[in-house]
Specification:
The complex is a heterodimer.
Chain A lengths: L6 E14 L5 E14 L3 E6 L5 H8 L7 E8 L2 E4 L5 H10 L1 E4 L11 H11 L4 H14 L16 H13 L5 E5 L7 H16 L3 E5 L3 H7 L2 E5 L4
Parallel strand pairs in A: 3-8, 3-9, 6-7, 7-8
Antiparallel strand pairs in A: 1-2, 1-4, 4-5
Chain B lengths: L4 E10 L2 E11 L4 E5 L6 H8 L7 E7 L5 E3 L5 H10 L1 E4 L3 H4 L6 H11 L5 H14 L16 H13 L5 E5 L7 H18 L2 E6 L2 H7 L2 E6 L2 E7 H6 L4 H8 L5
Parallel strand pairs in B: 3-8, 3-9, 6-7, 7-8
Antiparallel strand pairs in B: 1-2, 1-4, 4-5, 9-10
Helix pairs in contact in B: 4-5, 4-6, 5-6, 6-7
The chains are: A alpha/beta, B alpha/beta.
């Protein structure tokens, strides 16, 4: 295990089902023995019909969903850690430093301006507010987010504007592993191009990426491999 | 990492009712732990037990103080505990009237905590009080006003300033946004959120509001009938609830 020096993430035999107690205890098996390896500089696309478990796998890799069985080994700083066995404070550190996750939707905090929303991950890492804000401003510029929006709360932003704030919030940190759940779904061609360039830069720097891309063009350009989900029913 | 507070097998009963049944957790520096559950679940009893406001039946409560010493909170002298509560700990009450002195000015409410920790320089105390009023977005010209003339949201922000002025390491909060209008709540939550980060506070936050824990808490414990039925990182518990009670709680929320 962990034989290759460039391996960043190794998920083995993941099982995850949901038991819906409010619906008479119905059990939904979603992941049944899924495995996935991702190395530095590699981008793996998850594909398959909706409902097949792509997002469930993605959320499990972030430790957001708690898997029933299996292991998720992650290269965290100098060590390998198995996510499902970590204490809450240890998982927080892995998320702060090693795994970045771009969810489909930005969670909006009332009253907090876009600049601060996107700077928070850096502030949590101990960066000064000046440095953090400057980095976010660079990213906002590259993502063509109009400067007039920077000091406003994203509450009233369009879908595409929120998505770019969400992307900036994650891309502002140099995570060795990135999980991207439909990062360009609400963007027009020009902004999609800007996002693809940013992701390509990360890949070139050795970031290991797992993504769900609804857009074939984006997927073909960014991804080296695909993991295809069959829907079981 | 060394925890700030370690709670092991804490028990408290009222007659035949177990209000807290074998509660255990470790709280680490800089973490906000949310405790959620409906009325009667034991969450407020737990908070009061930790604060030493209630005698406990059983269990261990360890606290690592600012000097790096481990204190057994159930056996330290009462005088020592009172000093801790005034310096390293803070308690934010649901009703600001319980946490403020309503008959003295806003400035004096903040200054009193400072004088408790030995500050005597009147000018410095007043300057610090003014700075804190500004931090919690209360206009400076209200410094000599009585809290009884403040709105509910302003009273709650004043209570926050009074508690935080001594830079406590651990803050216990009991429904800090309960009873406030939604817009006033948002302002207070945002303020607590930024103060937690800038002051590196550790917080135990009791609430029945899922929106509040989603916004503030890193970790979450769900209580029902005196027991912890589920715990984990806040997003784990709310996005992938396992226990029937947690699922019920999450599915009953309009915008979880």
């Amino acid at each position: 295990m962990h034989s290759s020096p460039t391996l960043q993430l190794q998920a083995e035999n993941l099982y995850k089902s949901f038991i819906l107690h409010v619906h008479n205890g119905v059990q939904l098996p979603v992941l049944q023995g899924v495995s996935l390896n991702v190395s530095a500089g590699e981008c793996v696309a998850l594909s398959g019909a909706s409902g097949a478990g792509k997002s469930t796998l993605m959320r499990s890799l972030y430790g957001n969903y708690r898997i029933d069985k299996g292991s998720i080994w992650v290269r965290h700083q100098q060590d390998w850690v198995d996510l499902p066995t970590l204490q809450p404070h240890e998982l927080i550190t892995v998320r702060q430093r090693t795994i970045g996750y771009v969810s489909q939707f930005l969670r909006i905090i009332p009253r907090v301006p876009a600049l601060t929303v996107a700077a928070e991950p850096l502030l949590d890492l101990g960066f000064s507010s000046e440095v953090a804000i400057a980095k976010v401003q660079d990213l906002f510029r590259r993502l063509n987010l109009p400067e007039s929006l920077w000091s406003l709360s994203p509450t009233t932003f369009s879908g595409g504007e929120k998505q770019r704030v969400n992307l900036a919030r994650t891309l502002v940190v140099d995570y060795p592993i990135l999980l991207l759940d439909e990062p360009t779904s609400a963007l027009d061609a020009a902004n999609r191009e800007a996002v693809m360039q940013l992701i390509e830069e990360r890949k070139a720097k050795g970031c290991a990426i797992v993504g769900i891309f609804h857009d074939d063009e984006v997927r073909d350009r960014l991804c080296n491999r695909m993991l295809t989900f069959e829907r079981e029913n | 990492m060394i925890p700030l507070l370690s709670v092991q097998n804490l028990c408290k009963s009222y007659g035949a009712i177990m209000a807290c049944d074998r509660i255990s957790f470790d709280l680490y520096p800089g973490q906000v732990l949310g405790i959620i559950g409906e009325s009667g679940s034991g969450k407020s009893t737990l908070l009061q037990g930790i604060a030493g406001q209630l005698p406990l039946d059983q269990g261990q409560l360890l606290y690592w103080d600012g000097q790096g010493q481990v204190l057994d909170l159930r056996t330290i002298r009462e005088s020592h505990r009172r000093i801790l509560m005034r310096t390293e700990w803070g308690f934010v009450q649901q009703n600001p009237r319980d946490g403020l002195r309503m008959d003295v000015t806003a400035g004096a409410n903040i200054g009193e905590r400072l004088m408790n920790v030995g500050d005597r320089h009147y000018g410095k105390i007043r300057t610090t009080a003014a700075e804190w009023l500004d931090q919690v977005e209360i206009p400076g010209d209200r410094i000599d006003g009585l809290p009884s003339n403040f709105s509910g949201g302003m009273q709650q922000r004043l209570q926050l300033a009074r508690v935080l002025v001594t830079q406590p390491r651990l803050v216990l909060m009991d429904e800090p946004t309960g009873g406030l209008d939604v817009s006033v709540q948002a302002k207070l939550l945002d303020l607590i959120r930024s103060l937690v980060r800038t002051l590196h506070l550790s917080v135990i936050l009791v609430t029945h509001d899922i929106g509040v824990v989603r916004l503030l808490a890193h970790r979450l414990m769900v209580m029902q009938n005196g027991q912890v039925v589920e715990q984990g990182l806040t997003d784990q518990v709310l996005d992938d609830p396992h226990h029937p009670y947690t699922q019920q709680l999450v599915s009953a929320t309009l915008t979880p």
